[in-house]
Amino acid sequence: MRHIARLFFIVFTVYRFGLDELALSNFRQRWVKALVRVITAGRRLDAPRGQRLRLALERLGPIFVKFGQVLSTRRDLIPADIADELAQLQDNVPPFPAAQARQLIEKAFGQTIEAMFASFEVEPVASASIAQVHFATLQDGREVAVKVLRPNMLSVIDDDLSLMRTLARWIERLSADGKRLKPREVVAEFDNYLHDELDLVREAANAAQLRRNMAGLNLIMVPEMHWALCTQTVIVMERMNGVPISQTQRLRDAGVDIPKLARDGVTIFFTQVFRDGFFHADMHPGNIQVSIAPATFGRYIALDFGIVGTLTEFDKEYLAQNFIAFFRRDYKRVAQLHIESGWVPAGTRVDELEGAIRAVCEPHFDRPLKDISLGQVLLRLFQTSRRFNVEIQPQLVLLQKTLLNVEGLGRQLDPELDLWATAKPFLERWMNDQVGWRGLVARLKNEAPRYVQLLPELPRLLHQALQPKSSADQRAIVELLAEQQRTNRLLQAIVCAAFGFLFGVVVMQALAYLAPR
To answer: For residue 220, what are the β-bridge partners?
Structure first.
């Protein structure tokens, strides 16, 4: 019944804001136009289409807002008026009342706002789908940002996820692509990320890890967490001062090198993915700023660490080899990697898969970002994957979403950016570090503590390995030894008899020779 009620609410919201008319308006068939006239009769849809879509997504809840955030960065896929409206979902979702935020903060820490902060700004500086942020000053004078989780988020998200799980089961049962697409596994991954985002202590831990990882790069800053003021519903962090990355004209006026900023963004992304296997996975413009302070001029400022992606060593190496093969246009190697990894059936012909991948990727090389679209490339690859029965990898869905965000940011900053040329040297250098002498030395250093502990124990471990492990083993060994002794005695008897026979023959021959003739 909860599913039915939620589905009814979604349908009602779609009808109320005229999203059905928006979805059908691009079709040119006469019968579709007639249907649009019927369904819009009696409804007043005076508001612009982008505004209607934004309001509908806000009303439907956090999952739909996140979908709108991703769309807002894809100006190559949606009209500009819709993208401009959806951009407000990045950090301008309607806030919940300030009095409620105050109550939640005081409940989390068990003391009043005045006791914790020297000053507290009632109006939120940013408001998103999961939480909102207020600026404040600690009693010792340090400026901080206070992030407060929206109330009743868990029930809303659980309802939508439950509905998504039901839809995933139906897709798996009824769709010919159900097994290949793995919809239930994809929803399970999405479930984990969303529930992690509802725990602000986890977000603070993610920020601390990312801050350590990026400490030596000097391209990005991550706020420091005040751990004494971090709970599951409220966290307090260092206040960061920067210009939102979407305000490119303001950055230019401040003297920021925009093309370099775009290249730095690509470097940061690939460093997090391939060097660390730990990456910021919610990189829409609302979560990225740029510092214009003299000491840190031109550096990125990362915010909102509720969603991070992780990759295993196998995933990193496999993806790096794929990227490098793509950049070198070695499509045969790409096809071989897909078959070796088990992503496509073992009987797939390498030459056929190679030709299909070449047809998708070749038209997009040696062209600036403004002339290509990774979104369209991924769509073509998806169509190709259906032909060759390529299995979807749920653990990489978050990486694909982040890659689309990164491309969207790059497109806004520098449409002339050559993504391939920027990323190729980094990946080749990373692969050399992994498989060359430096990689071997690094792995030996990492394993050295284990070797130091293991080497003195080798004699004892060898002795233990040679000892019988049970009474049954002991009895078997005793019986084997007894059998060996019996065999030895039999062999000794045979040898003695043989020697006796030979000695007898020799004696008889000697006596015969010495006997008088």
So the answer is: 300
Judge contact between 32 and 57, C-beta under 8 A.
Answer: no
- Cβ–Cβ under 8 Å, residues 372 and 407: no
Beta bridge partners of 146: 134, 236
Please state, in angstroms and rounded to a whole number, the distance separating the CA atoms of residues 154 and 198.
7
**DSSP β-ladder status, 126-127 and 243-244:** unpaired
Confidence at residue 255, expressed as pLDDT on a 0 to 100 scale: 93
Asked if 148 contacts 132 with a C-beta cutoff of 8 angstroms, the reply is yes
Q: What is the mean pLDDT of residues 88-93?
A: 72
pLDDT for residue 268 is more than 80: yes
Contact between residue 237 and residue 226 where contact means Cβ atoms under 8 Å apart: yes
> Which H or E run includes 119?
strand 117-120
Q: What is the model's pTM?
A: 0.69
Give per-residue pLDDT as tens, 447-467. 667 766 666 776 777 767 676
Q: Is 304 left (phi over 0), alpha (psi -120 to 50) or beta?
A: left
Minimal CA–CA distance to 255: which of 288, 219, 286, 293?
293
Q: Give dist(CA 185, CA 135) in Å, integer.
A: 39
Q: How many CB atoms lie within 10 A of CB 313?
A: 9
Q: Does the active-site annotation cover 282?
A: yes
Task: Provide the token pair at 217.
Answer: 């790069």
The answer to whether residues 313 and 279 touch, using CB atoms and an 8 Å cutoff, is: no
List, in order, residues 6 or more apart from 301 with CB less than 8 Å away.
Answer: 220, 221, 223, 240, 242, 288, 289, 290, 291
364, 377 contact by CB (below 8 A)? yes
Q: Which residues pair with 237 in a beta bridge?
A: 145, 225
Confidence of residue 94 (pLDDT cuts 50, 70, 90): confident
For tokens 């439950």, name the residue: 162
Amino acid, single-letter form, for residue 362? E
Residue labelled with tokens 């302070």: 293
Q: Write down the catalytic residue from 282, 304, 315, 414.
A: 282
Phi and psi at 320, nearest 5°, equal -60, -45
Share of the chain above pLDDT 70, in %: 68
For 44-87, write each residue's pLDDT tens digit.
667 787 888 888 888 877 777 777 776 676 565 567 778 778 77
Q: What mean pLDDT, rounded, does the chain reach?
A: 77
**Three-state SS at 391:** coil
- 269: alpha, beta or left? (left if phi > 0; alpha if psi -120 to 50): alpha
Q: How far apart are CA 76 and CA 405, in angstroms?
A: 12
226 Cβ partners below 8 Å, 6+ apart?
Answer: 138, 144, 236, 237, 238
**Cα 177 from Cα 198, distance rounded (Å):** 32
What pLDDT score does 226 carry? 95
Dist. CA 183–CA 160, nearest whole Å: 15
| CA 428 – CA 430 distance, rounded (Å) | 5
Q: 181-213, pLDDT tens digit by residue? A: 567 776 776 677 777 778 899 999 999 999 999
